[in-house]
Amino acid sequence: MKKVECCSCYKYPLSKDEIGINQKLMDSDIENFFCISCLAEYLECSVEELLDKIEEFKEQGCTLFS
């Protein structure tokens, strides 16, 4: 897996969950990724809401988070 940095704050490297939630909520073919904090700000939601969604997607068996 290639290492990715946040396109907003430049956090490096992003975790697999951070990459997965970007792909799940934005587009699977995106090139610019946000860390969890910047993604929450971009989507106008809380970090906790995103973390809850990640857990929900994991429970559903989404392969982006396995």
Strand portion: under 5%
On the 0 to 100 scale, the average pLDDT is: 95
Fraction of residues in helix: 40-55%
The number of helical runs is 3
DSSP, total strands = 0
Classify the secondary structure makeup into a structural class.
Answer: mainly alpha
Specify the overall morphology: globular
Radius of gyration: 11 Å
What is the count of structural domains? Answer: 1
- CA-CA gap between termini: 13 Å
Instruction: List the uncertain runs.
Output: none
**Main beta-sheet annotation:** none
State the order of secondary-structure elements, H for helix, E for strand: HHH
Describe this structure in words.
There is one protein chain. This protein has helices at residues 16-25, 36-43, 47-59. The chain is mainly alpha-helical and 66 residues long. The chain has one domain (16-65). Helix 2 (36-43) crosses helix 3 (47-59). The mean pLDDT is 95.
